[in-house]
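Hey team,

Filing this mostly as a record. A colleague (T.K.) asked me to run one chain through the structure pipeline before their review meeting, and I want the input and output archived in the tracker in case anyone asks later how it was produced. No errors, nothing strange. Just documentation.

Input sequence:
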Amino acid sequence: MIKPLIPAELREVALRLRYRDMRLPRADRYQVATANRIGIEVGGPSFLFKTALPVYHGARRVDGVNFSTTTLWEGSIQPGTSYRYFGARAGIQYISEASDLSSIDAGSYDFLLSSNCLEHVANPLRAMAEWNRVLKPGGCMILVLPNKRANFDHRRPFTTFEHLLEDFACGTAEDDLTHLDEILALHDLSRDPGAGDHEAFRRRSICNHANRALHHHVFNREVAEKALRHSDFDVLEHDATDNDFIWLARKPAAVS
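Output structure:
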């Protein structure tokens, strides 16, 4: 069984320290998109959506998607009505790839949440196309991506949009290890508690298809917004913190 990167208690403390003094000044603009609506989160639940950008509490329901019944972040999870995202509130837990939500009908949700997930996906444009598909016309997405300056990717170059297009065109699958050599050379282990020494990190990284710990891609604002537009999203809001880039984007409304 896959063990968490660090004990759950320490992870909770680390997240509290990360977001304890952070409140997004324009959080209300994001909350409007989720208030009393039904949404889905890919790769959650996320501490950010309880604290700095609190959207869980106002939603009617949030369902969740994770790639496996065992993850580094959540431990063991099960499909069904078991997605506990805020206190006792629960939604439907799907076990699916972020880039393949074929078990979910098109136009099923009012909003979609994704925090610090897309960088773990080998084919981001395919994932974003799926995220768009499961949204209703006019539905919104809150996308959060890490700012590399604040994490273990700070030595790595930004991914180009052309590379994302190539992954999309080639149908890059989630077992891809194209970026492994770069990651092993430039990953800052001093900023990745629980990853171990270089050899332990290498062993874990080779098995990425089982654990999904690698950041395949490193995003900046320009590339992320090109990816949003390519995936037929309109950018409504953008905010940045020391740790993250945050977007509110909308799927165009249906033309009558």
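Quick notes for T.K.: The beta strands are 38-42, 61-66, 70-71, 75-76, 80-86, 89-95, 109-115, 135-146, 234-240, 244-250. The radius of gyration is 17 Å.
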